[in-house]
Every structure is written in C-alpha cells, then in structure tokens.
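user: Here is a favour to ask of a fellow structure person. I have my own habits and do not want them to colour yours. Could you put it straight underneath, so I can go through it closely?

assistant:
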Amino acid sequence: MDGTQILGYIGALIVGLVLGLIGGGGSILTVPLLVYLLGYNPIVATAYSLFVVGTTSMVGTYQKFRKGLVDFKTGLAFCFPSFIAVYLSRRYLVPNIPNTLFTFGDYPLTKEMGIMIFFAIIMLLASISMIKKGKDKNAISKKQPYYKTFIQGLIIGTITGIIGAGGGFLYVPALVIWASIPMKKAVGTSLIIVTINSLIGFTGDMQTLNIDWFFLLSFTGISIIGILIGVFLSKFISSEKLKKSFGYFVLIMAVYIMYKELNS
C-alpha cells in the first residue's frame, strides 16, 4: 500500500466522520478525494461516491434512530420522488451527456469538467443557505404542502443524480428551511434520504460501469467506522454551530473544486 492509498483511506474515515456530524457532506469529500487524490474518472468517482455515502449513511441512520433523531414521515416524503429522479438520472441522463459540452475558442468544456463545475455551483448555493442567519426560534413553524415536497424531491434528486452525491448537503438545508425540522433532527432525517437515494442511484451505475468491488468495499468499511465516531461526537456540538460549520465547510470545498477545474 503506497502513500496515496493510505491518504485515500484516511480520507474515507473523514468522509464517515463528516456524515455522522452533519448528515451530509460525505460526497463533497468523496468525489474530490477519488478524482484529485486517487485519480478516478469523475463518472466513476460519482458512482463510487453513491455507494460509499449510501452504505455509510445506512449505518448512521440506525444510530440516529436510536437517539430519536429521525423523522421518517418527512424523510420518506422526500425519498419517493427523489430516488426516482436519482435512478433515472444515473441510468439514462449521465451516460448520454456528450463528451464535449461546449467549446470556447480552443478551450473545450468536457463532460467530466462540466459535472465537477456543476457540483461546485450547487455546493456554493447550499453553503449560502446554511451560513445565513436562520429563522427566529420563537417563530411558528408550518409544515409545507406535500406537493411542494414532491417537487423539491424531484429537483434535488435530479441534481444529486447528475453530480453523484448523496444529497445530504442539499437535504439538510431543505429539511431545516422548508420542512421546519430542528437541525439535529434534520441531520438524522437526511441520512435515511441519502441512504435510499444513493443506493438506488448506484444500481443505475452497475448497469453501465465496471466496479472495483475490493477497493469500494474496503473504502466503505473505513467510512462506516468514521460515521460511528461522528454520530457519537455530534451530541457534544450545538445545532447552530453545526449548521454554520457545515455551511463554511461546503463553501470552502466549492471554491477548491472550482479552482482545480478552471486551472486544469
């Protein structure tokens, strides 16, 4: 095992840790880790990310459920439209995106570069929604109509399908802002959505890609250890600090990805 592989497995541990703490962000680390450190093609990296994040989140969901921090009703309301959109995106949309999207003079924007830039833009928007000051804690929270949840699930599912993310970094803000769920419960609820979306999305990739199962399972196993540690540590961190820290973390990663792609 060389130094790059060791760093990759350390990264896997951090992926799980982040998922356990904030219910999202696993793919924000996994995709850049697989692409920039381990040298995987972005299409393969986004597929592997779905499996790693989905399997790791499944373990985290159980841990959060034991603590009473999972709202299954709201989570499943988001899941139904989302997993349909994720599967269709991975199975039919992503494989049919042209290899060259645009050409600016002599500079081609490739499919791989386009996916990573789109990934960074979505991360940037999500980070802003988490960093800005939330609602007044004394304000009355109202649950939104189901049709709005359905539409939001379709949109987020399509986005996460394209970028190969579990979507926790999108679902946590959605659950806090739209569904009026407290931050810590939103973290737990997002994990069940991420689990279902990611693993169903990965089944679409299994039909179009050759999977290195040894690497994928070992990487995932280390991430599971990380999420167990993260879930334990999350009880010592306040919800407001968790929310803002999450937002700044996503912002930093978005800027880094954008910089790497535009300078490649």
